[in-house]
Amino acid sequence: MANVTEGRGLCVAPFLQRSLFPSQEGYLPGRFCAPVPSLEGSIECCLPCPVTSWIYSDNFETIPKASNWLNVAGMACTMSLLVSYLVLPVEKTSRHYLTVCFIVAVCILQLGFIIPLGAQPEQCHDAITPNDMSSDLMCAFSGACLLAGGFAAISWGFLRSLSIHLQICWQVVPGRKLFWSSLLAGWGIPILFASIALARTGVSYRFGDTCHINHDKALQDYWGPLLAFAAVSTILQFATLAYCIRVYIRALFKDDGTSQSSLGLPSNNGSVKTVTASQAYRRVQKAISVQWRGIVIVVIIIVNVVFLAVVFVSMDNTQQAVLQNYGKATPWLSCLVTNGGNKNMCLGKVKDLATPEPEVMAVLILMSLNGIWTLLFLGRASMIPAWVELIRNRFARKHDFVSVDAKGLSALGRPYEIIASPPPQSAYTPKIPRAAVVVTSPSSLDGDTIAALSPHSRQDYFIRDAKYVSPTMSFSTPRPPSSGRYQGREWDPVNTYARPWSPSTGKGGMI
User: Fold this and answer.
1) Parallel, antiparallel, or unpaired: how do β-strands 203-205 and 211-213 relate?
2) One-character DSSP codes across 233-261
3) Which end of the chain, N or C, is more open, meaning fewer C-beta atoms within 10 Å of its C-beta?
4) Nearest to residue 82, comparing CAs of 112, 65, 64, 106?
């Protein structure tokens, strides 16, 4: 048989002969090739790259691009939250390190879908071989962000579930040890498993412009640990929910009169460690009212990532089943040959050979909405007026404050000196007439007043004589200073009922 087109060789349309592509770069297991008997012996014919363009409809290529743009909107939402946490006060945002790290993990996950928008990578290394992380640098970056971000989101969701479970069910207040342990585990474990998956399994273009993890050893290296963390996190969520339901039921059917009196005061029967059903319910209700947003968003992210894992594992198993038994794909391949490569005529025969198109579309769209869900559940309405106030204070004109007294002094033309300023007055200052007598008690004058009355003062109104005027509601009068603390006092034993003291014996006492 003569060559019809370059690369086709002895294969019929739309297949290409594998021996004509000797390059060893790219993801070689990603080729879809099958042995075909011919007059010259058995040859391997392969579907052109990408294989997904032959399995799914023409509209399928628009779904990955749409999901990438949805991740751009999600990135804007998550970055607005991070900027709000950085700029606005904590009472307006209720930020917490578990929330901040969880949002950062979602941002890393979104980068895996956003990078291809700017790079516009080539999915195929040649006509039958898809690119992988060794042949395309953008594939390595997008795949690493996808693996690390997905695992980090699950890890921080697990840590948040653990923290809520400890606070609600065990009354354990997270401290500094849990803080540093969470940082180490929340970022160390995702980096570890993502590195292992990249080194042992790798990533390649399987569908769309984003690189996803390959099939070989993916279950034990990445999907297995990821699903394990998701399962433990889900168990903690349901355990916390069961505890809340139990406390609520106890608060409904158990009276707290045994530990509280009719006046609402604690009785002697209770102790500091005793917690009634109503008290436990109020504590749990308060914790849930604060944490319910974080609980919901963690559940959403876990469901999305688990759904992604299930779809990929199913896709890998289906692909391996076809590669091990080409007889399952014979009706579909024969249809392509018969119709001259028109895939639309053969889509009905490929349904059992690949993951259904609606499932792949659903998982891509759900993963793209993570950033929007994060803003809806972790954002607070108090952030909006806080931003308005911040912008208003930033751009509003600042008027200098000038007091009325300062204007009056400047109008008189007198020199203004800080040293000669009058002492601060109290809230109530009685009017002092001009004709007055100087107070004779030096104990009633403080240092500032004495300095003001000195002849070295530079302001004439500081040397004016003043007379003490008793306030309306005051019952005290100035008294002259005494020469001694006990001057004029006598010790009379008769008046005090004390025994007289004898100088000879030195004894005395009460009668």
Assistant:
1) antiparallel
2) HHHHHHHHHHHHHHHHHHHHH---TTTB-
3) C
4) 106
Long-range contacts formed by 310-317: CB under 8 A, 24+ apart: 311/355, 311/359, 311/360, 311/363, 312/212, 312/213, 312/218, 312/223, 313/218, 313/219, 313/223, 314/355, 315/206, 315/354, 315/355, 315/360, 316/215, 316/218, 316/219
**Which residue type is seen at 12?**
V
pTM tops 0.85: no
Residue indicated by tokens 């076809």? 322
pLDDT tens per residue, range 92-113: 998 999 999 999 999 999 999 9
| Nearest to 335, CA basis, from 319, 353, 318 | 353
Percentages helix, strand, coil for the chain (3-state, rounded to 5) are 55, 5, 40
Residue 433: C-alpha distances to residues 406, 436, 438, 454, 469 (Å): 24, 6, 12, 20, 10
Listed in sequence order, the residues at least 6 apart from 490 whose beta carbon sits closer than 8 Å to its beta carbon are none
Residue 38, SS3 per DSSP: coil
Give CA–CA dist 166/98, Å, rounded. Answer: 14
Kindly report, residue by residue over 28-79, the tens digit of the pLDDT: 989 988 888 776 677 889 999 999 889 898 888 888 889 999 999 999 999 9
The predicted structure's pLDDT at residue 507: 53
Closest CA to 50 of 159, 137, 124: 124
Mind spelling out the 3-state secondary structure of 462-496? Answer: HCCCCCCCCCCCCCCCCCCCCCCCCCCCCCCHHHH
Query: Would you give the distance in Å from CA 401 to the centre of its chain?
Result: 41
